[in-house]
């Protein structure tokens, strides 16, 4: 039972354009959502998070949108840069329900110069 | 500020052996979690420790065990290794499990079973 789903295994985007990575979840108890970026041979690096009391959070070129009714979140990267090429993981947890962090299987983003 | 440190980085074992992996969290972080990453499977949760107590456990067999010490350092042990245990094992730390703070990851231990 996959509680966090990233349905696109890969995505290619031109440099300078917007990258949109999507994530769906099934557990309505999830109240904290995060995005991580992972380069080969390195551990995941925290990018941005959002609490369920918000529907948008921005940090520089990265914006996360949360649609609780649809149980969907997305990560927007604008403008995309070649250094953004990596695997992006969506993760979620429920603090009130004391659940561990649950990860999606990741989306490989390739930014083409 | 030093990040999460995992040792060793690479390990080769044979079937039936056991292995111990080590994780030193970021200074001041008291919560440590372990994950297994295999190709195409994302990160699968193994355990979460806080104040030397296991708070959560993932759906892994009893061959996988862990512990946390009073200085928040953590170890995980896998006994009777199987070929399917070949994976990247990642450790992550955070200040405490009750806060909305992200977990920060080490670079992992790559375990290969021959």
Spell the H/E element sequence of chain A: EEEEEEEEEEE
Main beta sheet of chain B: 7 strands, mixed
Run of helices and strands of chain B: EEEEEEEEEEE
Question: Rg of chain A from C-alpha positions?
Answer: 13 Å
Major sheet description of chain A: 6 strands, mixed
State the shape of chain B. Answer: globular
Mean pLDDT across residues of chain B: 93
C-alpha termini separation of chain B: 37 Å
Task: Please name the two chains that share the biggest interface, counting residues whose Cβ lies under 8 Å from a Cβ on the partner chain.
Answer: A-B, 23 and 26 residues
Helix content of chain B: under 10%
Layout of SSEs?
The complex is a heterodimer of chains A (113) and B (114).
Chain A: E1 4-5, E2 10-14, E3 19-25, E4 32-38, E5 45-51, E6 56-59, E7 62-67, E8 72-77, E9 86-93, E10 102-103, E11 107-112
Parallel strand pairs in A: 2-11
Antiparallel strand pairs in A: 1-3, 3-8, 4-5, 4-9, 6-7, 7-8, 9-10, 9-11
Chain B: E1 5-7, E2 10-13, E3 19-24, E4 31-37, E5 43-50, E6 53-57, E7 64-68, E8 74-78, E9 87-94, E10 104-105, E11 109-113
Parallel strand pairs in B: 2-11
Antiparallel strand pairs in B: 1-3, 3-8, 4-5, 4-9, 5-6, 7-8, 9-10, 9-11
Task: Report on this structure.
The complex is a heterodimer of chains A (113) and B (114). Chain A is mainly beta and 113 residues long. Chain A has no helices and 11 strands. In chain A, strands 2, 4, 5, 9, 10 and 11 form a 6-stranded mixed sheet that branches. With 114 residues, chain B is mostly beta strands. In chain B, the strands form 2 sheets. In chain B, strands 2, 4, 5, 6, 9, 10 and 11 form a 7-stranded mixed sheet that branches. In chain B, strands 1-3-8-7 form a 4-stranded antiparallel sheet, with no helix packed on it. Chain B is globular. Chain B starts with a strand and ends with a strand. The chains are: A mainly beta (113), B mainly beta (114).
């Amino acid at each position: 039972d996959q509680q966090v789903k990233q349905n696109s295994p890969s995505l290619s985007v031109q440099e300078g354009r917007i990258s949109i990575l999507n994530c769906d979840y099934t557990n309505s108890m999830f109240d904290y959502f995060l995005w991580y970026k992972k380069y080969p041979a390195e551990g995941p690096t925290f990018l941005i998070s959002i609490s369920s009391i918000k529907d948008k959070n921005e940090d520089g070129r990265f914006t996360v949108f949360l649609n609780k009714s649809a149980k969907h979140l997305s990560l927007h990267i604008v403008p995309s840069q070649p250094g953004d090429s990596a695997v992006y993981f969506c993760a979620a947890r429920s603090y009130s329900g004391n659940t561990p962090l649950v990860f999606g299987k990741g989306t490989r983003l390739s930014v083409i110069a | 500020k030093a990040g999460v440190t995992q040792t060793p980085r690479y390990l080769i074992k044979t079937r039936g052996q056991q292995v111990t992996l080590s994780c030193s969290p970021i200074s001041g972080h008291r919560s440590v979690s372990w994950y297994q990453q295999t190709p195409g499977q994302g990160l699968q949760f193994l355990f979460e420790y806080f104040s030397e107590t296991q708070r959560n456990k993932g759906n892994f067999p009893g061959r996988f065990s862990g512990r946390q010490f009073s200085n928040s350092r953590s170890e995980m042990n896998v006994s009777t290794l199987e070929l399917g245990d070949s994976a990247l094992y990642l450790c992550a730390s955070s200040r405490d499990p009750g806060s909305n703070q992200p977990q920060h990851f080490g670079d992992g231990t790559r375990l290969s079973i021959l």
